[in-house]
């Protein structure tokens, strides 16, 4: 786990606060603080854990503020290392919480459906994807899935202005990593808060949830979002402030690298399908991953399968693959050029 850097004054009223994610190899999430005459606004909040909350409180103190000074928080997306502390923040202050409507809908759903019900549904998806019974039993015995601590009370649409007096901070909707992922463009400061959409070294996870859903195209949306941020004004001069790793410049070039990685993966999966029909498990387990498939924990295998499913959805959208077999155990097949729609 990487050592967390110190709280840092980035100038022009912007601070970075590393908030730890205990027990996670990512180590920490950067929470950014933007100051104003009417109180600071946070970008993200961090993981829901006592250690994380204490780090956030200490970090705010180093910026000259207390928790009850916080005017509001914009959450880039609903994932727990970004939204986990919104409940504690709301309980300790009068802060508003803003998020894109698509991720507000996901958060409300997660809050309304019991975690046990969601875990059982995931286990059913794994069975239908071809996962062995051992993996399914392991998942059913694992801790409950993430349940949000609070549902945001403000919807922030694409292009919307954040309630930050004296500053021009605007939402850039970048779906893919989550349905409502937002980057935040500080037009008067030459900065882009990229959340998990663009990271300097890691390729962000893009998954299909539920695994076997035939709705949506998260990877197609993600690739479109990468192209979009690359076209922002002065994209390669912007200082990019991601939620993990380090600050960087060269946004357009990095966005192209991320897109190229996924295009390579699409080609790899299409090649596997050319060998014959395959279940989601069969495709996923035959791909190369950073860790050997046999050494991966079941949660990591589930995430890998969701990423593979997103690639299969895009291959379907491009007319390069088709889904066949029964709903109980679907398979994917390659589509020959002559069979592709005109």
Automatic annotation (TrEMBL):
Q: Which residues form the signal peptide?
A: none
Q: Which residues cross the membrane?
A: none
List, for all copies, the residue spans of the domain called Metallo-beta-lactamase: 28-244
Record InterPro entries? Metallo-B-lactamas, RibonucZ/Hydroxyglut_hydro, Sec-metab_biosynth-thioest, WH-like_DNA-bd_sf
Task: Indicate what this protein is called per its UniProt record.
Answer: MBL fold metallo-hydrolase
Lineage, uppermost ranks: Bacteria, Bacillati, Actinomycetota, Actinomycetes, Streptosporangiales
